[in-house]
Design brief:
Oligomer: single chain
Largest sheet: 3 strands, antiparallel
Strand order of the largest sheet: 2-3-5
Structural class: alpha+beta
Bound molecules: iron/sulfur cluster
Distance between the termini: 59 Å
Number of helices: 6
Order of helices and strands: HHEHEEHEEHH
Helix content: 10-25%
């Protein structure tokens, strides 16, 4: 015996009523009839869709700055903050002539998020000191292979000409909070 938590299970003899099964069947029918008059917990998707909030956390985006350079500096704070250990990256040093590609001297050569591990808590966004990662209102698409849910920079970094709007997540209150002198952010 490995532990003392084992429990002896005794096979109880069924009573006459239990052997008839009728009371159990009747109580099942009563439960079914009761549910007929209750509000349905499901919707007829895709004809009907549920109403969702204006602001919610969907697929991440790695942002570029105004000039089109990647903001992420591969500091790893998002990965440390992630409770699901969904983020991995490798850092590289920016070479001369790459200033238009990467904002800082260090950048993420690879950056991956495992969307099957992610719980969309938003802590990576909160931890980022460079305003580089945001959760957006885009759904993570369904797929057949687990490997296809590991999103790399090709899916995460926004296009130079196809910017992803994150203003809903940068409300005046959030921006004011980030400018707080004692909580200096995005330096
Ligand atoms: S949203 Fe949460 S779980 Fe998902 S990558 Fe960011 S920190 Fe990790
Ligand atoms: S996304 Fe932000 S927190 Fe994560 S590595 Fe890049 S700069 Fe650091």
């Amino acid at each position: 015996m490995l532990t003392n938590r084992s429990k002896l299970v005794v096979k109880k003899e069924m009573t006459f009523l239990e052997r008839m099964y009728l009371p159990a069947i009747l109580s099942g029918v009563v439960i079914t009839i009761r549910h007929l008059f209750k509000r349905a917990a499901t919707v007829r998707f895709p004809e009907k869709t549920r109403e969702i909030s204006d602001v919610w956390r969907g697929q991440h985006v790695l942002k570029r700055d105004d000039k089109g350079a990647e903001r992420c500096t591969a500091c790893g704070l998002c990965a440390v903050a992630c409770p699901a250990e969904a983020i991995t990256m490798t850092a590289a040093e920016r070479k001369k002539g790459e200033e238009n590609l990467y904002r800082e001297e260090k950048y993420a050569a690879t950056y991956e998020i495992n969307m099957l591990r992610c719980i969309f808590c938003g802590l990576c966004e909160e931890a980022c000191p460079k305003e580089a990662i945001f959760l957006t209102d885009r759904l993570v698409e369904t797929d057949y292979s687990r490997n296809d849910f590991i999103y790399g920079k090709d899916k995460l970094v926004e296009g130079v000409t196809e910017r992803i709007d994150v203003t809903k997540r940068q409300t005046p209150e959030v921006l004011a909070f980030k400018q707080h002198k004692q909580l200096s952010h995005n330096k």
